[in-house]
Design a protein that fits this description.
This is Flavodoxin. The chain is α/β, with parallel strands linked by helices. It has five helices and six strands; from the N terminus they run βαβαββαβαβα.
């Protein structure tokens, strides 16, 4: 099975750290959204899509890439993210937009992973940020376990 992880990581490399950890475990190729195209993505059997969370959803470049994908039948995908704040489903669903776009393209979603990440966006920088040690060893261990379950 050919596996690709596509990610967008900006401020502190939180999402890239998770993406590389998972890629190492499942022997996946890894590309940033800058280098990924629908044609490249189409060559893979399982694709992971991830980014930090910005204003309650994945990065706009990842969402745009998902929007540009052709419709597929049964191709497998998973979603991952990092965020300074935890998700509160009543208020927002971090994965809603990306999940919607992938399902519209007929991807089979087989898993979703998220963990906290160091965040200094906006006013948070005035207090030195939040989640300063994240993702930590426990987060990376959880990412490894998640990735291993994807290929069992």
């Amino acid at each position: 099975m050919k596996i690709l992880i596509v990610y967008k990581s900006i401020h502190h490399g939180n999402t890239e750290k998770i993406a590389r950890t998972m890629a190492d475990v499942i022997n996946a190729d890894i590309l940033s959204t800058r280098d990924a195209t629908p044609q490249i993505i189409g060559r893979y059997d399982l694709i992971g899509f991830g980014s930090g969370i910005y204003f309650g959803k994945h990065h706009h470049k990842l969402l745009s890439l998902a929007e540009d994908l052709p419709e597929v039948k049964g191709k497998k995908a998973f979603i991952f993210s990092t965020s300074g704040l935890r998700e509160l489903p009543i208020i927002h669903n971090f994965n809603k937009e990306l999940k919607k776009r992938l399902l519209e393209k007929k991807y089979q979603l087989i898993g979703i992973f998220s963990c906290r990440g160091f965040d200094t966006y906006g006013l948070l920088k005035l207090i030195g940020g939040i989640q300063k040690e994240r993702p930590n060893d426990e987060d990376l261990s959880n990412a490894i376990a998640f990735a291993e379950n994807l290929i069992e």
